Amino acid sequence: MTADTVASLTDLRAFERDLLYAVCALEDDTPPKGLTIKNYLDSEYGEDLNHSRLYQNLDRLTDNDLLTKGQKDDRTNEYATTDHARELLADHAQRRASAVDLNGGGPA
Known about the structure:
The chain is mostly helical. It has one domain (13-99): Winged helix-like DNA-binding domain superfamily/Winged helix DNA-binding domain (Arc Repressor Mutant, subunit A, Orthogonal Bundle). 51% of the residues lie in helices and 9% in strands. The protein is built from 4 helices and 2 strands. The protein has helices at residues 14-26, 34-45, 51-63, 83-99, and strands at 67-71, 77-81. The protein has a two-stranded antiparallel sheet with strand order 1-2. Strand 1 (67-71) and strand 2 (77-81) form a beta hairpin.
């Protein structure tokens, strides 16, 4: 899969979508580091995530231009959602809300 083929969040695996939502939720003035993302998802899933799984998927999202990866220091990377990823997240959330009538307009 390349960045050109990620037209919808449904093009991604569920864990990749969860990662994007987590990074977006954790972004404020500074991009979250990998361990912060892991801790967030650990609490969401109620289990300890495998580091290898986490970082392989973060790299895949970076390769697909949905995340940017920067260096906080010599040992720590930080991640941020791209504009394209934020658009996909907003569209996905809107479709889900419409599908269960949270927008008051019935299914889309």
